From TrEMBL:
UniProt keyword list: Fimbrium, Signal
Highest taxon of the lineage: Bacteria
Source organism of this protein record: Pseudomonas paracarnis
Compartments, as annotated in UniProt: Fimbrium
InterPro entries, alphabetized: Adhesion_dom_fimbrial (IPR000259), Adhesion_dom_fimbrial_sf (IPR036937), Adhesion_dom_sf (IPR008966), Bact_Fimbrial_Adh_Pro (IPR050263)
Protein name: Type 1 fimbrial protein
Chief place of localization: other
Family: Belongs to the fimbrial protein family.
Domain Fimbrial-type adhesion: 3-142
Amino acid sequence: MPPACQTANINASMGQHRLSDFPKDGAPSNKAIPFNIKVYNCPAGINKVMYSLVPTSSSASLNDNQGIIKLNPGSTAMGVGLQITDDSMVPVLLNTSLPLKDYSSAGGNFTVALNARYFKIAGGSGITPGAANTEMTFVMSYL
């Protein structure tokens, strides 16, 4: 088996939001929740580590370029999706390999700093409150 880094499942708790957190249709909530994906035990000798966020079949992409995914079928909220951004609030491209920042071929532990925020779907019939859950797969590749 080729050398690989390790990571654990991440659960980003979004908490409660108010309708006033959503400025308009087709725009993100003004409330972002920071979370980190810890990448650890990377062996020495890997030149480059890439990662991608891949929507699942139950939480499909709404917009790969804007990092927006649908809520899963168990969600009761309506009118929103979830947007993932980097630590500078720039949307993360979904289904795209991105370099792991600060990676060193010496190996070790690294962090992918991200934010999650709800996104009011344009042309929707408004927001219906309720549970708003989604999931993605974190994929790493090595060069």
